[in-house]
Amino acid sequence: MEKKLNKRKGSQSLEFTNPPVILSTACVVGKKEGEGPLGAYFDQIEEDPMFGGKTWEDAESKMMFRTANLALKKAKLESKNIRYLVGGDLLGQLIATSFGVESLEIPLIGVYGACSTMGESLAVASVLVDGGYADRAMAITSSHFAGAEKQFRFPLAYGNQRPLAATWTVTGSGAVILGDETNTVLYSGHKVHVRAVTFGKIVDYGVKDSMNMGACMAPAASSVIAAHLRDFNLIPAYYDKIVTGDLGSVGKDILIDLMRQEGYDISKNHMDCGIEIYDPEVQDTHSGGSGCGCSAATLCGYLMNHLKEGKWKRILFVPTGALLSPVSFNEGQSVPGIAHAVVLEAV
Amino acid sequence: MEKKLNKRKGSQSLEFTNPPVILSTACVVGKKEGEGPLGAYFDQIEEDPMFGGKTWEDAESKMMFRTANLALKKAKLESKNIRYLVGGDLLGQLIATSFGVESLEIPLIGVYGACSTMGESLAVASVLVDGGYADRAMAITSSHFAGAEKQFRFPLAYGNQRPLAATWTVTGSGAVILGDETNTVLYSGHKVHVRAVTFGKIVDYGVKDSMNMGACMAPAASSVIAAHLRDFNLIPAYYDKIVTGDLGSVGKDILIDLMRQEGYDISKNHMDCGIEIYDPEVQDTHSGGSGCGCSAATLCGYLMNHLKEGKWKRILFVPTGALLSPVSFNEGQSVPGIAHAVVLEAV
Q1: Among partner residues B83, B92, B201, which is closest to A325 by beta-carbon distance?
Q2: Hey, are the CB atoms on B112 and A204 less than 8 Å from each other?
Q3: Cβ pair A108:B200 closer than 8 A
Q4: B200 and chain A: CB distance < 8 Å anywhere?
Q5: How does pLDDT run across B3-14, given as a tens digit for each residue?
Q6: What distance in Å separates the CA atoms of residue A168 and residue B344, rounded to the nearest whole number?
Q7: Chain B contact for A124, CB < 8 A?
Q8: What is the per-residue pLDDT for A4?
Q9: Helix/strand/coil (H/E/C) assignment for every residue in B16-83
């Protein structure tokens, strides 16, 4: 059997021999995200922050359900055509996902990587398709501003002030359907496939500020990007863009510094979904957007658009996660980070 | 490329062409579990419920860290020899896992399937090894009685009464190291490998009682066991034991009834880790044990012992999870279940 693992000693990376093709992507976001600079790229913008639900958690589940169905519709598939669903979210015990996808009745692999979830779910789904374990698999995630604030910081009604390093949790969901070579791609433009992945390690610099997630996650992003470049012996310019998830403007500066220490200059082609998704002047979002939905919706809208239309040939997509809970934070623990890297290539 | 997916229409199952071998297992439990009927099978029994830690969550992390290291030691490996770690736990945002394994510096795939986590992590790790994506992978999980009560029900200090349908969360952790055929197995007796897996769907019967997890999870267990038997065209007697995770005595009765409705009689060879792990007369545990650690520690101790020693040829290991959070429960949501099935075979 042909081994797909990268042979470099200590490698964290996999190169696919049967690169899974993206059959469709879908993204559904809230009003604020729709008003931002990437608004035109989202499939649906919902004015109602409750998405017709009864609670913030229910709202997020309904948003995820709608996103999954839209991805199916765009690929002209039904849920029974999807072999496995790989998904997760930020809420404790993944309740947005459990209640969001249960009626689809697809065998579920629940994953948690904080805001790196879109990278993790895409990577696991890619392994399943590349390895012949699934003819089609869906990767999905979401986050909701109000649910995340309630879960991690303060209920909205408390009205606390947000420091300038704080990010704004994106209300959004993104879903990607991957398929093997037996599938036909229906969208126009370039086919996009997943070429390789690098699974990240937890990196903990001891940062304890839940209002400065960028600083918590930048070391993990730097670790996985550097590992990826070393594993495949690449220079940063190999990628049209190296796209992190939600470092925000504070985290971006730290990442670029850390990458310099690793011997790589990514200042020219680095982009962060959290910085792109809002206009900080007009939208009062301080350091930028965050949440699983930030990189997921940006991938499924803006990034996919640029790949399909041939504006970019390939990108390294690196969603970034901060591994904290309200309990660990209140007990004085640090906020470790994790990030996973996925190579997306237009063919 | 040879396809590993089961070709039956609507199949949820995978049969491995290069079945991963279990290189080692390790289990560390608390005092109560050590005093139970399976006490002799656990690797370590810790008298201190804090495991030398500062908080219940920290205690669980320290228990998991110790379990991972013990599994490495038993296989004469170091953490750098493990390509990927697949793990998770019950706590919100998987903090027991994040803080438990971060110092091992193994690329992490965080998973959440409530108490089905040992099944999910074993299944994903098996895919990685079978497919040639990892020469070695570790699957790990844990639960801690005090941390789980605090997270899901009432803090211990509240002193609430437990109804008879309630289970007792196991303080325990289990770790399995899987390897491909290039590895040498060091333990004596039969080699044990992972032959196939069936990923489960979420099944929601609308049960809303967080004190009756068995009733919430039994439909999911029934669904995945029936799917497994159908996918491979097997009768229940093919397995020496069909071992669910933590249905307890209430859930066991429901499972056997549901399986009869599916056309299968599993009453003769069904076993539930939650029923085996405590003595309900002496230990006041009511319906039985529960938690990710329940099936994980039972697998890594008692079940592996029986397979290695040739008492059993093959078992279907089916950890069962209840997908609730304190938030979803307090908002009046039902408690859906999920279960994943893993075929373990002595060769």
Answers
A1: B92
A2: no
A3: yes
A4: yes
A5: 467 777 779 999
A6: 46
A7: yes
A8: 66
A9: CCCCCEEEEEEEEEEHHHHCCCCHHHCCEEECCCCCCCCCHHHHHHHHHHHHHHHHHHHCCCCHHHCC
